[in-house]
Amino acid sequence: MRVIEVNDYYELSQKAAEMIIDQVRKKPDSVLGLATGETVLETYAAIVNDYQQNQTSYRHIRTFNLDEYIGLAADHPNSYHYYMNEHLFRFIDIPMSQTYIPNGLADDIPEECIRYEKLIGQCGGIDLQILGIGRNGHIGFNEPGTSFDSTTHVVELAHSTRKANSRFFSSLEEVPTHAITMGIATIMKSRQIILLASGERKAHIMSQLLEGEVTPNIPASILKTHPNVTIIADKEALSLIG
Ligand code: F6R
């Protein structure tokens, strides 16, 4: 695992965007794995800015998002479909038909998980996966205790995750209880992975991740066994490293 320490969130976002744009330029038909959440927001803004300045093209790119809430329609402001459209897709030239996000309204959710997992394989697998990290070490919505062998599946969200995400909803009760997420094995099949961590609220988990062992109690710890992982973290996120 390579760790790039940057000064702050701005630098983190610039660096992450630069690595994604590099990948897109080197392989214009790349398959990208994308995350939602607060950390990646400015990375997407930097990609949009580059698109406007330099016309980097996403016409042949395909994207797979890590996860989606069950029960929220694509046009619900808190769905990850909505998030991706509002923060990235509608500002670049990627055809919407090449952007894949699990369907949280599918009639048959277990079947949707199988379909999504297969689709990633049919597209040749993910070249570059972007990850954030939960304060409990989750990646995607793979909460502590999730099997390292898991593929795309349904999860019941941990109370702490629902609480953390309730800042985007009007109340905790409105946060869905379940989601579809790529599994840990799905994420680990990606050829390259970038994990982003910013701010003091990620400091504790980053010290556990970087100084602890590989354990299902910290799902992100499995990344230590992957041959091509880069962590981009700012000083605050790394402030508890001894
Ligand atoms: C979102 C996702 C989550 C987030 C994580 C960090 O698609 O997969 O694992 O990356 O919860 O979220 P933020 O960036 O909001 O701290």
From TrEMBL:
Pfam families named in the record: Glucosamine_iso (PF01182)
Family, as annotated: Belongs to the glucosamine/galactosamine-6-phosphate isomerase family. NagB subfamily.
Domain of life: Bacteria
Originating organism: Anoxybacteroides tepidamans
Protein's recorded name: Glucosamine-6-phosphate deaminase
Cited function: Catalyzes the reversible isomerization-deamination of glucosamine 6-phosphate (GlcN6P) to form fructose 6-phosphate (Fru6P) and ammonium ion.
Catalyzed reactions: alpha-D-glucosamine 6-phosphate + H2O = beta-D-fructose 6-phosphate + NH4(+)
Pathway(s) per entry: Amino-sugar metabolism; N-acetylneuraminate degradation; D-fructose 6-phosphate from N-acetylneuraminate: step 5/5
Broad enzyme group: hydrolase
Residue ranges annotated for the Glucosamine/galactosamine-6-phosphate isomerase domain, each copy included: 12-226
Gene3D superfamilies from the UniProt entry: 3.40.50.1360
Keyword Hydrolase attributed: yes
Residues annotated as catalytic: 67, 136, 138, 143
GO MF annotations in UniProt: glucosamine-6-phosphate deaminase activity; identical protein binding
Keyword terms, alphabetized: Carbohydrate metabolism, Hydrolase
Key word Hydrolase present: yes
GO biological process, one term: carbohydrate metabolic process
One annotated Gene Ontology cellular component of this protein: cytoplasm
Record EC number: 3.5.99.6
